Amino acid sequence: MVRALITAGTGMVAQQTNLDVIANNLANVNTTAFKQQRAEFQDVMYQTLRASGASTGGSTSAPTGVQVGLGAKFAGNATSHVQGGLQATGNPYEVAISGEGFFSIELPDGSTGYTRDGSFKRDANGDLVTTDGFRLQPQITVPVNATSFTIGPNGQVTAQIPGESNPRTLGTIQLSVFPNPSGLTRIGQNLYQAGGASGDPQTVDAGSDGAGSLQGGFLEGSNVSIVEEMVRMILAQRSYEVNSKAIQTADDMLSTLNQLKR
Q1: Quick one: 190 exposed, middle or buried, by C-beta within 10 A (0-12, 13-18, 19+)?
Q2: Helix H segments across 115-225?
């Protein structure tokens, strides 16, 4: 019964972690380009009371083993990289990725971060930056006197300058593609960093080599499904309650044993 207490306790801890992940998904239901996470669990070690195939006397052997499990543990997060819905904003500086890929962002320490949040803005120098002021790479600078600004599906950025008959090309927004996007490390502020499991990024033009195309004037929404998260929350709550009941039952049984001594 002591083993049952410990095992049920691990189940409660696991469901608490599950609820933490669900709560984070629901908190980010309106976060631009947020990718849903799902908690994954594993069973922990087993106590083997009898091995499979052990002799049961004479020439016979046990067809199955006798093992008692010792609970569950949180194993990791599975990230869903399903495309979020595209939302029209009418802002020419905002852009969504339709397909695979990430924007490259220069972080304050000089390293590179990656994001699918294309809510870019112009800073005092005319550079395209994130909401936190981190520059888009490769750098795109918009002239102060530009009267119009356009981001093409292939990432080509153009602006109309007074006195020039044709739009001026300001540069090209390129995308970074990873062999395993789920291996990226989330660092907050809608940013990721490359991790050991993500593989090295490949910088390509939008719409080529597996990268998605760009949609100017749009933003990608969160791919969190509120209904799906609510169902998971109910299941986590029921699982937590059942494990709690198992602890109460084991405690009652121990109490009964203690009373037998009297």
Answers
A1: buried
A2: none
pLDDT digits (tens, 9 = 90+) for 106-151: 999 999 999 999 999 999 999 999 999 999 999 999 999 999 999 9
Give the contacts of 55 (CB within 8 A, at least 6 positions apart).
61, 62
The per-residue pLDDT for range 31-89, each reduced to its tens digit, is 999 999 999 999 998 888 888 888 877 788 888 888 888 999 999 999 999 999 999 99
What secondary structure, in 3-state letters, does 118-140 show?
A: CECEECCCCEEECCCCCEEECCC
Label residue 261 by pLDDT band (50, 70, 90). low
Q: Is 19 exposed, middle or buried (0-12, 13-18, 19+ CB in 10 A)?
A: middle
Q: Per the structure block, which two tokens stand in for 118?
A: 């294309």
Tokens of 3: 């083993």
Q: Which of 107, 118, 114 is nearest to 213 (CA)?
A: 118
Report the C-alpha gap between 262 and 208 in whole angstroms: 79
Select from 168, 224, 250, 170 the least CA-distant residue to 21.
Answer: 224
Q: Which residue matches tokens 């790479």?
A: 137
By three-state DSSP, how is residue 50 classified?
Answer: strand
How high is the pLDDT of residue 66? 87
Residue of 193, 198, 201, 147 whose CA lies nearest to 177: 201
Looking at every residue in the chain, the average pLDDT score rounds to: 93
Share of the chain above pLDDT 70, in %: 99
C-alpha separations of 184 from 74, 79, 200 in Å: 19, 10, 10
H or E element that contains 218: strand 218-220
- Crossing angle of helices 2-27 and 226-260, in 10° steps, is 160
